[in-house]
Amino acid sequence: MSDENAFPDDARIIVHPFEQRIEGADVTIANASRSSFLSVPPDALELLTLFAHGHPVGEVRTIYQDKYGVTPDLDDFLDTLKGEGFLSLAQSGGEVLSVSIAPEPPARRYHFDNIPVDLARRLVSPVVLAASGGLIAVGLLACAIDPGLLPPPTALVFDHDAVGLFAVLILFSLVTVFAHELAHLVAARAAGVPSRMGVGNRLWILVAETDMTGVWLTSRRQRCLAFLAGPLFDLTSAAVLVLLLFGDRHHWLQLAPALLALTRASLFVVLARLLWQFEFFVPTDLYYVIGALCGCKNLMQDTQTYLVNRLAGFMPRVPRRDQSAIPPREMRVIRWFAIVWLVGRAIAFASLFWITLPVLAGYGLLLARGIGGDAQASQPLFDGPLLPLVALVLQTVGLLAWVRSLSKTRNRTRRTIG
Prior knowledge:
Blueprint: E1 13-15, E2 18-23, E3 26-31, E4 37-40, H1 42-52, H2 57-68, H3 74-83, E5 87-89, E6 91-92, E7 95-96, H4 117-123, H5 126-145, H6 162-190, E8 196-202, E9 205-211, H7 220-249, H8 257-276, H9 285-294, H10 299-312, H11 328-371, H12 375-382, H13 387-409
């Protein structure tokens, strides 16, 4: 909430250039650098237009009240837009009231904006997508003919050359994760959207992620393609690996024992990555597809607010948040998604406390004893594929990132004005 008299009646507002896209009952606006996006009701555009034409705050308030019969809360509205860099205060009476232009975002590194849009469009053209789909269909047919092609978790256990094969498997995982994110990035660039890669977390799971927020200004088809590009790459990779195994099993080609073991392990890694996408209770690629198809840009946040409001019905001290501006169709989606969110979180936390943390504690104790000089204790970590040690490091980093994100969540403001 802005301070009293922060926007006096005689204040004039400078509206900075912005882009917009109308979707259903809301409008998505983006600042000139596409570093900030807001979902606003259509009447917010009327307010911005009045300010852009030079009407002072008090006059805009009166015009809005005469038209709609209610007094707008311009302080909150202007304070939010000011903080996101959409506007600033102009001079009034020869004195500068304040200047509150959000600083330009620093030059982004590793953002891949230099990928030509024409090249990106060729890489996600209908021909390429059809070829990928055909390859996936053939891979599914091979699995239907020979279900034994699908590897069990024991495929990650190598009988021979364990250290070398596991090192190659880690390299394969890193390369394919990069390619997965690059697929998102290329599809976004095909829609003219700047994107960049980064590392984040989903709960306590460390993940690679692509920032392509600008995709919300594109068409629904372009959005879905950008969100599905990564899983589509994984499906294509899995199909290639399945066909290699199919050819070996049916003696069409002969894979060396080490290469065969590595192919099976790689297929398991890719399939596990695909399975992760179906955990809709966190922001996975398929979660974003659901949001795009349903027209819900803030599905996760709105669902959590809905659940808090339900909790407030039993605990009066819990503050409620107004969701009356959300259209009924979106509210139906939110109610359905709330069930998915609750079930998914329950399963995730059960696995965290009953499986993940006890296992990490066990291996952490072995590592501590090994550092203390107990060679027998460190043998399970350093002898063999080093899988426990790698998992220990990654999971610990993920847990720390999750705890850090919890503190940030308390100060995070809703990015939807309603």
